[in-house]
Every structure is written in C-alpha cells, then in structure tokens.
Write a structure and sequence with these properties.
The complex is a heterodimer. Chain A is built from 9 helices and 10 strands. Chain A is α/β, with parallel strands linked by helices. Chain A has a 6-stranded mixed β-sheet. The mean pLDDT of chain A is 86. The chains are: A alpha/beta, B alpha+beta. Bound molecules: adenosine-5'-triphosphate and magnesium ion (MG). The site of adenosine-5'-triphosphate (ATP) has 13 residues of chain A, from helix 1, strand 2 and helix 3.
C-alpha cells in the first residue's frame, strides 16, 4: 500500500466559547477571556460562551487518488475537518501531516504557499471573485504562482474547456448560473494540478440535476488524472457516488 | 493586482463615488479653510502696514512709544546714505510722526500727523490707492491729505484750508495752514477719522526741527522678506548707535495680538473640519472593507499570502485617496480661484473694521505650504484607514475570514 497523502493524528478542535465573542471585536473577546480565567465568574459560562468540541481525537488517513466523501448531520464537524485538512484552521490538539510533513510548524506565508501549490478549494457558495471574469478567476491562481502570462492563459482555457465553459470564459460570475459558477470554481481548483481538491458541500446550493453533472465532472477528473477529491455532503445521492465515505457525528468517526 | 484593485473600486460604483466625494469635499473644505486663514492674515497685515506702519522702521532707540516716536533722529543724513545701499529694500522714506490739533472754521480735532516725503511715501503706503477725491499731494507746498470721516467732521472740501496746531521742539506753539489736496477712505473708522498726511519740509520748519526726522519707514518686496531685510539693516546701521531697527510686529503689537487670536480661532475651526473629514474617510473606507473580509478569506484560501491581501487593500484605499484628492484639489482650487478673483464677502467684516483695518471682502489666495500638509494628512488618513482592516483581514485565521459575514 502506498504512503498516505494526508494523515490526522488525534486531531481535536475546540471552539472556545469566548472565541465567539471575538466576533464582537478583539477588545470584548479578550476581556471575556480574561474574566473566564478567573474561576469566580461562573456566570460567564452560559450557553453562548460554552466551548464547542467540534472534532474529538480524530485519527484518519487519506491516500492519493481517493474520491472520498465526509458525511454526517449538520453540526457534526464536516466543515471543521475540511478546514483543518486545508490548513485554513488549526487543530487545538493533535497533528496533521501532508506527505509526511507536519503542517503546524509552518508560518502563515508557508501555509499560503502550501495551499497555492498543493490544494484546490471548492466552496459551497462558489466564492468566485466577482470583479474578475471566469477566465481571470481561474488564471488568478496561476498569477499568484508567478507563471508567465502566455502559459497562464493556455492552462486556464484548458481547465475551462475541461469543465465545459470555454465559451463563457469572458463572463463575470454574475452573468453565470449557479451551476456554471461552480464549474468555474472547479476549474479554478484544478487548474494548477493540485494534489488534493477539497470541497465543502459543493452541491448544496445547486439543484439535483446540476449536482449530478458536477459530480460526474469531478469523478471524471479523479479517474482521468488521478486527482484526489475529498468532499463533504449530506445528500445520499452524492454520497452513493463516493468510493469511500467517512461518517462523522459529534466530531467522532462512526 | 492593479487591475483587480481598480475593478474592485468600480464594482460598487456608488460606494466608491461616495468615498471619493467625501475625501474630495473634505479636502477642499480644509483647503478652503487654510486659504482663508492665509488670506485674512495677509490682507490684514498688508492693509494695516500699508496705511501707516510700513514693513520696517528705523527710529531713535530711546523711543518709549513706537507709534508716536518721542525722540528724534538728530542726524538722518548718514542713515539715509546707508539705507540706500541695501538691496532688499524696495523703497524708504523719512518721516516725522507727531500729534496735533486740526482746526477748520467749524471745529477742531486731535489727530496723528504723519509728515512724509510725498514722492517716496506714495510708493511705501497704500493711501494713494484709497484716495476717493483729489490726489495724494499734487506737489505744491503746504498740502494735507486726510480721511473722509475726518473731512466730514471738519466739514471741509478739497482746496479749502485747515490749520494744524502742535508744539515745537523748542517748546513754542507751532501752527501752520494747509490746503486739502486729497481725501481717502480705507474703511477703517479709526484710520479715516484720525490720521492725516502732510509734507515733511513745512513740518520740520513748523516744529523747528530743521533737517531732523523721527522715523524712517521702509518697504520690502514681500512680507516674507521682512525679517531678513531687518537683520541686514540692523547690521548696516550698527555704527549709528542712536537708532534701532523695528518691524511692523514691534510697532503694531495690537495687530500681532489680533493675528494670534485669529490664528487660534481659525486653527480650532480647521482642526474640527479636519476631524470631521478624517472620520468621514475612515468610516467609508472601514465599512466597505469590513464588508469584504470574507472575500479576502477566499483569496487567502486559494493561496494568496497575507501581504498580498495587505497590498491589495492598501492599493485600493490609496487609489481612492488619490482620486479623492484630485477631485478635492480641483474643487478647492476652483473655489479659491473664484473667490480670489471676485472676493468673498464676510458678514462680520463691517463690524470688525471699527477696531482694526480689516476688509469685509476677502480675496482668497493659495497657501501651498499649508495645502501640502493637508494633502499629506488626507492621504495618510486614507492609507491608515485602509491599513486597519487590511491588517485585520490578513491576520485572521482563514476559516474565520471565510465565515465573516
Ligand atoms: N468558528 C466557530 N466558532 C464556534 N463554534 C463553531 C465554529 N465553527 C463551527 N462551530 C461549531 O462546531 C460544530 C461543528 O461545526 P461544522 O461547521 O464543522 O459542522 P458541519 O458538519 O459542517 O455542519 P453543516 O452541515 O451545517 O455545515 C458545530 O456545533 C458548530 O456550531
Ligand atoms: Mg459545514
């Protein structure tokens, strides 16, 4: 058996109750954190401020070429898990390895480079850059990588062709349908040949027919170029297409 | 990068236009305020130095009252010679300043008499420009020029005679008749009712101070050269220990006080304007950027380094700042140019003119040394208010930025 591409060791993610207070600003958040550290202020431990354990001692491995779904009810920790795998968030405890390298030791810039080179993201709400055309959106990743202009164009058009949107290349996201936008997002996620594509509920905002065709697209990409896909969903139809399904509930494997 | 920033700016046209407008209007308000301070002061100084004070004065160093020198310059000839050689001086003249009583057939009034060399004096002070009737001396001996208010009180007309009474240096009573050759109007009640001009020579005879004066008045080319020229004059006149050199600031203490007072008030106004402007800029920029934190999260998720986000945001706010400044600069310049040409009437002007020689119409001028400060200030403001959300966004954990609504 080949070496794991990604492995998680006892990964725990705790959202501190006071973290939520940071939404009200750093100052308030810090004050509450301070207050909480004095045990006397029990009253601070009300519901809004309770810590949430989103992932509990999770140990998992992913291998190259996988087409894996993460399933579970709402609030079970799917997004949290994908965020941690994608180095968008940090585990509270435990370790994350990518090709044997531990990621927690990397700086913000190194992590950005890591994401830029090795990962592709597809979001539930598409998250294209609204002011750029489909082509420019796809191209942006390569611009960040510093590829020469001609090469960028070529690869981006190729990626758009792959998702069947070559003719819409010069439209901006608002001129595209949801399904088309998500196809652009897929093109953006794969244009730089990442090792893993992470997709958090990629079809949740789409009707079942569009979802189906998107999934076909992802499946083809997985088959033809061996790209690893890890996506989350709670749609049974989607889950049935996955080669491997990881069920989680309350932050634990089931 | 620039393309992305540029398009981001025009994505929400209304918001960007509001930002640009608020920066622009704010800046032009500051510019206007600065120009006003500057213009009011220059006009004030030019007007009051232009009536009697002059830019620089040379008087007996023992004078207790610089407004009416009580000690004479016994030997003006060598000083005259020395002054002639100083390049910074535009023109200068000899004078005797004294108090006297002026009488017409109707009534008498105490006045400040300024005995001048008509030829030179007409180039030193601005009274010739304020003449409404007759001339500032026609050159025929014993003539007098006075303000319209005084002429009215004395009920005399051009060509009529008045008698000037004063005390000679030998203690005798001195009197002389003068013919009215010109009437001036400065708009300042105290000037128009109290100051009269007569030729120097007849006064020297009248006061039995032949060949002596008590004052040299000097005009330089621009207000900003006054201090430099004063130092030069002091240096040249060092051998004549009898005299001392003063600027209008030494002579007209009230004016300096008024200037300080005005400065204070206008500075407060300016600070308030600046504060409002700053808040406006910070507010619009912060709002529009915090709305987009999620978008910055996306950029970081696909691999943009924090410093790229930082640069993008700073670029955007800098571009907005520059456009706002360009707009503000043109608006401000237009306003200043317009009011510089046609004048800005001040509602309080008339009231003020009872106390000080103050025009009720202000002609605005540019004050670039101040405007530059404002340009830099406004620019930094937009830069910094871009930097705050930029730093915050680039420091957020990406997952958090993505959750940001
Ligand atoms: N930033 C956060 N701060 C605090 N709690 C959080 C945060 N993000 C998620 N949680 C909590 O962690 C738990 C797991 O959330 P997560 O978003 O991973 O679930 P999910 O499986 O993706 O759910 P859904 O299907 O609704 O997207 C939930 O209880 C959620 O309320
Ligand atoms: Mg989720």
């Amino acid at each position: 058996m080949s070496k794991p591409l990604i492995s998680l060791e006892n990964v725990t993610k705790i959202y501190e109750g006071s973290e939520q207070m940071f939404e009200y600003g750093y100052f308030t958040g810090n004050v509450i954190k301070k207050l909480k550290s004095f045990q006397k202020f029990d009253f601070m431990n009300n519901a809004a401020l309770l810590d949430v354990i989103a992932l509990k001692e999770l140990t998992l491995e992913f291998f190259p070429g996988e087409f894996t779904a993460i399933a579970g009810p709402s609030g079970s920790g799917k997004s949290t898990l994908l965020n941690i795998i994608g180095a968008l968030d940090f585990p509270s405890k435990g370790k994350l390895f990518f090709e044997g390298r531990e990621l927690s030791s990397l700086s913000a810039n190194e992590l950005a480079d890591f994401r830029l080179l090795s990962l592709g993201f597809i979001f539930q709400s598409f998250n294209l850059i609204p002011v750029l055309t489909a082509l420019e959106n796809v191209e942006y990743v390569l611009t960040l990588q510093g590829l020469p202009r001609k090469k960028r164009r070529e690869k981006s058009l190729q990626a758009l062709e792959l998702v069947g949107l070559k003719h819409e290349a010069h439209r901006v996201p608002s001129q595209l349908s949801g399904g088309q936008q998500q196809r652009v997002a897929i093109a953006r996620a794969i244009v730089h040949d990442p090792k893993v594509v992470l997709a958090d509920e990629p079809t949740a905002n789409l009707d079942s027919k569009t979802s189906e065709s998107l999934l076909n697209l992802m499946q083809d990409l997985n088959k033809n170029s061996g790209m690893t896909f890890i996506f989350s969903s709670h749609d049974a139809l989607i889950l049935s297409r996955a080669k491997r399904v990881i069920q989680i509930r309350d932050g634990m494997l089931v | 990068m620039i393309r992305l920033a540029w398009r981001n700016i025009w994505r929400n046209q209304r918001r960007s236009l509001i930002t640009i407008l608020s920066i622009g209007c704010g800046f032009s308000a500051i510019m206007f305020g600065q120009s006003m301070i500057h213009s009011v002061q220059i006009q004030l100084v030019e007007k009051s130095t232009g009536i009697i004070t002059g830019h620089i004065r040379v008087m007996n160093k023992n004078c207790k009252d610089l407004k009416i020198p009580d000690e004479d310059i016994e030997n003006p000839q060598p000083i005259e010679k020395a002054l002639e050689g100083i390049p910074g001086i535009q023109v200068f003249g000899q004078r005797i300043l004294f108090t006297g009583l002026i009488s017409s057939p109707i009534t008498s009034k105490g006045v400040l008499v300024c005995a001048v060399q008509p030829e030179k004096e007409s180039k030193i002070i601005k009274i010739p420009q304020y003449i409404t009737q007759g001339r500032f001396f026609s050159g025929s001996g014993r003539e007098i020029v006075l303000g319209d208010k005084l002429a009215e009180e004395l009920e005399i007309r051009l060509g009529e005679k008045v008698v000037l009474l004063s005390q000679g240096r030998d203690g005798s009573m001195a009197a002389e008749a003068f013919r009215l050759s010109g009437i001036y109007h400065t708009g300042s009640t105290s000037f128009d009712g109290q100051i009269i001009y007569v030729p120097l020579v007849p006064c020297q005879e009248m006061l039995s101070m032949q060949g002596k004066v008590n004052d040299f008045v000097i005009r330089v080319k621009g207000l900003e050269q006054i201090e430099r020229v004063r130092q030069e004059i002091s240096r040249v006149l060092e051998p004549y220990s009898e005299v001392k050199t003063y600027t209008w600031k030494d002579v007209d203490r009230e004016l300096v006080g008024i200037q300080k007072f005005q400065n204070g008030i206008l500075l407060v106004v300016l600070v308030i304007i600046f504060g409002i402007v700053t808040l406006g800029i910070v507010n619009t920029l912060l709002m529009s950027l915090f709305e987009r934190i999620r978008e910055f999260g996306v950029l970081m998720a696909i691999g943009a380094k924090p410093k790229i986000i930082l640069r993008l945001i700073l670029l955007e706010s800098t571009l907005l700042g520059i456009m706002g400044l360009m707009f503000g600069l043109s608006l401000g310049s237009l306003l200043i140019a317009y009011f510089g040409r046609y004048g800005l009437p001040l509602p309080i002007g008339e009231a003020l003119s009872y106390f000080i020689p103050f025009d009720s119409v202000i002609y605005l001028r540019f004050s670039w040394s101040r405007h530059w400060v404002a340009i830099v200030g406004v620019f930094l403001t937009s830069f910094i208010s871009g930097a705050i959300p930029a730093l915050r966004a680039s420091r957020l954990i990406v997952a958090k930025a993505l959750r940001h609504v």
